[in-house]
Amino acid sequence: MPTITAFANSPDRGRGQARDMRLRWALEEVGQPYDVRLLSFDQMKQPDHLALHPFGQIPTYEDGDLALFETGAIVLHIAEHHDGLLPKDTNARSRAIAWMFAALNTMEPPIVELGMAMLLEHDESWYEKRLPILRNRVGIRLGELSRHLGGGDWLDGAFSAGDVLMVTVLRRLMTSRMLEDYPTLASYVARGEARPAFRRAFEAQLAVFTAATG
Ligand code: GTB
N or C: which end of the chain has fewer CB within 10 A? Predict the structure, then answer.
C-alpha cells in the first residue's frame, strides 16, 4: 500500500487546495488504497523528510523501494501503473500527458502568482497596480482554455490524469473568484468535483483538518 505525505494542519483550512489532494484524487480514481503520513511544517524541513523531498515539501509518495516527489511525476506514476487515468491509444495517451504538463507548466504558474500576491502582498503600496496585471495574465489563459474546452466534458475526450491536474489547478482560483467569468470552466471544475473519487479524496483531506482543529 503506498504512503503519501500531507500537511498535519493545512493552511487551506480543508478546502482541498494543497497538492496532496491531487494524489488522493488520482488514487481514488484508480481504486488504490493508500496511507497518509501527516507532517508539521517543522517535520517537513527535517532530514528524514528531506531525504524524500529535497525541497522539504508535501506531497511525497512511497511504495516499496520507490520514493517520489513532485505531484506531476506522482500522478503520472499512478496513471501508468493502473487503468483509468490514461488512454490505451498511444497518441491519446501522449495528448493526456501533454495536458498534465499544460496544467502544471502553463496554467498553474500565473494562477499561483496571483494567489501568492493576494495572500502575501495585499499590504504593499504597489498591490492595487499589480493585481490587475496578474488577473489579466490568468484571464488570458482561462480564455484560451475555455475556448479549447468548448462544449466538451473533459480536455481530450475521456477523463484523464490531465483533468485531475487541470481541475485541481483551477480550484486554486476559488479566492479570486475568477472562474465566475468563465462558465465553461466553472462547469468543468464542478464536473470534476462531482466525481465520486473526488468527493472521497476531498472528504479524506477535510477529515484531517477537522481532526487537527477540533
Ligand atoms: N512542485 C511541487 C509539487 O507539485 O509537488 C510543489 C509542492 C508544494 O508547493 N507543496 C506545498 C508545500 O509543501 C504544499 S501544496 N509548501 C510548504 C513549503 O514549501 O515549505 C501548496 C499549497 C499550500 C497552501 C495552499 N493553501 O493554503 O491554500 C494551497 C497550496
Answer: C
Hey, where are the domains in the chain? 3-84+197-213, 90-195
Is 3-84+197-213 a domain of CATH 3.40.30.10?
yes
Ligand 1 neighbourhood includes 60 CB (under 6 angstroms): no
Model confidence pLDDT, tens digit, residues 80-127: 999 999 999 999 999 999 999 999 999 999 999 999 999 999 999 999
Ligand 1 atom closest to the Cα of residue 19 is 15
Q: Which of 201, 169, 205, 211 is nearest to 12 (CA)?
A: 205
Q: What's 90-195's CATH class? A: mainly alpha
Pair 39, 5: CB distance under 8 Å: yes
Helix (H, G, I), strand (E, B) or coil at 199: helix
